[in-house]
Amino acid sequence: MAGEVWPVEPLKRARSLPARAYTDPAMFEVEKAKVFKRAWLPVGRQEDWPEVGSYRAVDLFGEPLLVMRDPQGAIVTFANVCRHRSMRMLDGAGRVSAIQCPYHLWTYGLDGALKAAPFMDKSETFDATACLPKVRTETWNGWVFVCMDDDAPPLSLQTAALSTKLAHLDLAQWREVGVLRYQSDWNWKIMVENFAESYHVMSAHKTSLQPFWPAASSAGQETDGRFAELHHAVDPVMGRLTVYILFPTMLMSVSEGGPQRMVLWYDLDISAHDSFALAIRIYFPSDQVGDTEAIAAAMQTVDFVHREDIPLCAAMQRGLSSQYAAPGPLSHLEQPLWVFHTYLAERLK
Fold first, then answer.
1. Residues 6+ apart with CB under 8 A from 238
2. Alpha carbon distance 234, 110 (integer Å)
3. What percent of the chain has a predicted confidence (pLDDT) above 90?
4. How far, CA to CA in Å, does 134 sit from each of 89, 104, 131, 222, 318?
5. Could you tell me if 193 and 330 are in contact, meaning their C-beta atoms sit under 8 angstroms apart?
6. How far is CA 38 from CA 27, 135, 140, 338, in A?
7. What values do phi and psi take at 95, rounded to 5?
8. Are 149 and 61 in contact (CB under 8 A)?
9. Strands 275-284 and 175-184: what pairing?
């Protein structure tokens, strides 16, 4: 479908996406089916499931899932739906010794196998071997990903090149030190695109980022098409800032070589074509998680910078609703957008 909506052109001839890619609810439904439900999506960090029986109920585009640590210590995912009458079983997060449906008390082990089903002895169709459907789960650099498509390539294939680039950081050992939450009333792709380019830094962030990582110094990098990468000139004081997007929605920035090593994960909870909840999660190396002064400074800075973006992203959504909205030419500073648009076009056609 998307192949008919926007052609894949070389960067020098590339344009932004048509307005309906951001404003049409029908396009969002296509994205859910062809992009999100076929992709590897991040749902948390390994440390979010600290012990056997730890669980989190997760909703991904209409699918209730249950991510938990099983008796062997592995993080696994099940459909959070009872095999009796499809009751959603657990909510929130916590720790259990078994999974029990609150409706009729069907009970499953931490391996998903059915352990008890009261008063089913007279049913000729009852299957005592029924198990909770299992959803593919992989970890990468400490993050936990799930994929609802049994035929999708493994996450390790998508992350191979990026893993090499980030190996020196040992990100699995980093820990979350703070989180900032925002309700965002614009299309998720506007957030991805805003994150992916620093062309707007000269205007939106002229006193916060521009003095250290000026817009003109940013450059998109050649990748394998499974992720986008944006570099900035290394500032002598603040060090290096690199932005990565592991498609479709893993948004991550890495600051290193300056006074504070820091990773940001923009965690998107996408609910509609024109809104999502955003949690900006801040990570420090494990040996710096006790530096309360540095944590407070980081949270203040990250919040300040994001609040500079909020009115611009909201105005972009309003502008895209205009009858005069039309695709415009992309700058060479927007190369990561072109990589992202190419990824989408290949999956939506």
1. 212, 213, 255, 258, 259
2. 48
3. 97
4. 15, 21, 8, 36, 41
5. no
6. 16, 12, 18, 21
7. -140, 135
8. no
9. antiparallel
CA distance 28 to 42: 19
- The one-letter code for the residue type at 197 is E
Which tokens in the block code for residue 161? Answer: 């090149």
Query: How is 283-337 classified by DSSP, letter by letter?
Result: EE-GGGTT-HHHHHHHHHHHHHHHHHHHHHHHHHHHHHTSTT----BPPGGGHHH
Confidence of residue 8 (pLDDT cuts 50, 70, 90): confident
Is there a contact between 344 and 2 (Cβ–Cβ < 8 Å)? yes
Tens of pLDDT, residue by residue over 94-117, are 999 999 999 999 999 999 999 999
CB 155 within 8 A of CB 99: no
* pTM for the whole structure: 0.95
Give me the domains of the chain, ranges plus CATH numbers.
2-39+163-348 (3.90.380.10), 42-147 (2.102.10.10)
322-326: which pairs have CB atoms within 8 A and are 24 or more residues apart? 322/19, 325/19, 326/18, 326/19
Q: Which amino acid is at 56?
A: R
**How far apart are the C-alpha atoms of 36 and 38, rounded to whole Å?**
5
CA dist., res. 263 & res. 241, Å (int): 10
- Whole-angstrom CA distances from 18 to 106, 150, 245, 319, 329 are 49, 31, 21, 12, 12
- Start-to-end CA distance of the chain, whole Å, equals 4
Whole-angstrom distance, CA of residue 59 vs CA of residue 91: 10
